[in-house]
Specification:
Elements: E1 2-5, H1 35-38, E2 42-49, E3 62-67, E4 73-78, E5 82-87, E6 92-98, E7 105-109, E8 115-119, E9 127-131, E10 136-141, E11 148-153, E12 159-164, E13 168-173, E14 181-184, E15 190-193, E16 199-204, E17 209-214, E18 224-227, H2 228-232, E19 244-249, E20 255-260, E21 264-269, E22 275-280, E23 313-315, E24 321-324, E25 330-334, E26 344-345, E27 349-351, E28 359-362, E29 369-372, E30 376-381
Parallel strand pairs: 22-26
Antiparallel strand pairs: 1-2, 2-30, 3-4, 4-5, 5-6, 7-8, 8-9, 9-10, 11-12, 12-13, 13-14, 15-16, 16-17, 17-18, 19-20, 20-21, 21-22, 23-24, 24-25, 25-27, 28-29, 29-30
Length: about 375
């Protein structure tokens, strides 16, 4: 796996030098960097090229990006049925894991960095639990009868939620192969945990709602329902009950982000469900398909067969900013800024790059984020800006 020097990653730097990455939130092991001071200065720093591809094969699309709890490892799942691991601070490729028999998408770290879960794309719709040190399976989580559309890992426990096109949402614990609970909901759904782990949300695009469940009483009816159609009908009629790509709570638990493939994303109040802001994307969304969309392909990932989206937007760890990929450039919104009278908020900053950012994720511990379409790109603040 080769990397291309870009901007800050100059060839004259020693091979052992690390990227300009500092703690983005206070921590005992390092300095704290206020994101508001550097958010406008992020630049693409290192591009990883897939030089392991032979025989002129097309470069596969990256389907998802995830970080371990400590933020020092980054993982991608790829359309060529591989999982790629990277060391963040050293800016290098760590290893390649193969899943040729079952395929792979939506790969997520558990709370042990040496084990991951991911959804299958071949043979069946099971979720695989894998030890990364020797590429051996620990357990299969079987039960879904349709492609998995979302995996959401509990922030502090070995529990996760899965959503699938079989009209079910299931709750699992990694120590047993049997699901702990099941919700019967219509359509391809998305899920997210609040930062306390006491609540999880399920987005139901076909109904235009987000359902809020008490983790301790998930077998009961949701304790809250957010009516996205009612809240956002005057903003974006095209994506009120379709086109949703991402569901995420902010780390302060106050806001809920619904990413869409349309001309903007919705930021809602996590307590009363009211619309805080519509994050307008001037150039629209990426070319990725919506989870569950007809025509989704998990093949070679060429430009003629786009993958479904695992989300191109997210909150920063401080909960203040939202970043989003697009057909070019990365867009940044300051959610503390006042939207206009129609609740529309224009991007606060545009971080320039000519490549499409079809998937995007911000590091939970360091001032670092990554984007990808067919190749992975590391972003850090430019110290000279």
């Amino acid at each position: 796996m080769a990397s291309t020097p870009m901007d800050l990653d100059r060839p004259e730097r020693p091979a052992s030098a690390t990227l300009n990455i500092q703690r983005s939130i206070p921590g005992p092991s390092g300095a704290s960097t206020n994101l508001s001071e550097v958010i406008a200065n992020y630049r693409p720093t290192k591009l990883f090229k897939r030089e392991d591809l032979k025989d002129g094969r097309a470069i596969p699309q990256v389907q998802s990006i995830d970080y371990n709890d400590d933020g020092d490892l980054l993982m991608t799942s790829n359309a060529d049925e591989t999982i790629q691991l990277y060391h963040v601070k050293e800016g290098r490729h760590e290893k390649t894991l193969l899943s040729k028999k079952y395929g792979v998408k939506l790969a997520k770290f558990t709370h042990t960095s040496s084990s991951i879960i991911y959804a299958s794309t071949k043979q069946n719709d099971a979720i695989r639990y894998l030890a990364t040190h020797d590429n051996s399976f620990i357990r299969y989580f079987e039960g879904h009868e349709g492609p998995v559309t979302c995996l959401a890992v509990h922030p502090g426990e070995d529990t996760f939620v899965s959503c699938a096109q079989d009209n079910t949402v299931r709750i699992w614990h990694t120590q047993t192969k049997n699901w702990q609970g099941q919700l019967n909901l219509k359509g391809a759904t998305l899920a997210a945990w609040d930062p306390s782990g006491k609540v999880f949300a399920v987005a139901c695009p076909s109904a235009g709602t987000v359902l809020l469940y008490d983790h301790a009483n998930f077998d009961k009816s949701p304790f809250g329902t957010i009516d996205v159609i009612e809240q956002c009908r005057n903003i974006d009629t095209a994506n009120l009950n379709k086109g949703w790509t991402k569901l995420e709570f902010s780390n302060d638990g106050k806001s809920l982000l619904i990413g869409t493939r349309g001309n903007g994303h919705f930021v809602l109040d996590a307590f009363d469900g009211t619309l805080k802001a519509y994050l307008h994307k001037p150039n629209g969304g990426t070319r990725r398909l919506v989870p569950g969309e007809v025509g989704s392909s998990n093949g070679s990932g060429g430009q003629g067969s786009p993958l479904d989206s695992s989300g191109e937007c997210c909150f920063t760890p401080d909960g203040r900013f939202v970043l989003s990929g697009s057909k070019k450039d990365v867009l940044v919104w300051d959610t503390r800024a006042a939207p206009n009278e129609h609740k529309v908020l224009a991007p606060t900053y545009t971080l320039p790059d000519k490549r499409e950012a079809a998937v995007l994720a911000f590091n939970p511990r360091y001032n670092f984020f990554a984007t990808a379409d067919q190749e992975l790109l590391f972003w850090v603040p430019d110290p000279n800006s």
